Amino acid sequence: MKENTRDKFIETASNLFGKKGYNATGLNEILAESGAPKGSLYYHFPKGKEQLALEALILAGNKITQSITSHIENIDNPIEAIIYNIENIADIIDKEHKTRDITISLIALETYLSSETLRKACEDLYQSLENIYADKLMKAGMSPEEAHEIGEVICAMMEGAITLSLTRQNGNPLRLIAKQIPNIVKI
């Protein structure tokens, strides 16, 4: 299937924002990496970089939520499912030292004060991630209130552990979280 110019821009921006961040990625770099004609950028994204970043966040968010969902949906026990997902992310960091399709924390940290549009998109994605965990916990009988609270705790711990793992260039901080999940999740 041939990738259209708009999709090329979004995929390229998503990759670059994930590697370098929002502020360190320029439109000229996105143009060069995508190989798309310069005039087409503002045709597809008349509001410029912020609009492109929003689309890139949506793409990254879809990939992240699909990945988590696919890792936990076939494991009935929510504790085992959550541990499996965390350990999978740790393995990716061990092998690839990358954030792509794992987190949006870099763009979230860079834009929360400068762009309400991007801050809100990040907030929505984090809420979606929390809901994936909460839904898994509720299916196992946890109350909605407790499940959502635990989902938020898991998401917050994982985002911090991803940052530590990338800094240390190994997934061990994530594995420590995985080890503690049975102490946090009581079903």
TrEMBL record:
Gene Ontology molecular function: any one: DNA binding
DNA-binding region coordinates: 26-45
Keywords of the record: DNA-binding, Transcription, Transcription regulation
Ranges for domain HTH tetR-type: 3-63
Name listed for the protein in its UniProt record: TetR family transcriptional regulator
PROSITE patterns per the UniProt record, alphabetical: HTH_TETR_2
Keyword Chaperone applies: no
InterPro entries: Homeodomain-like_sf, HTH_TetR, Tet_transcr_reg_TetR-rel_C_sf, YxaF_TetR_C
Organism: Anaeromicropila herbilytica
Pfam families: TetR_C_13_2, TetR_N
Domain of life of the source: Bacteria
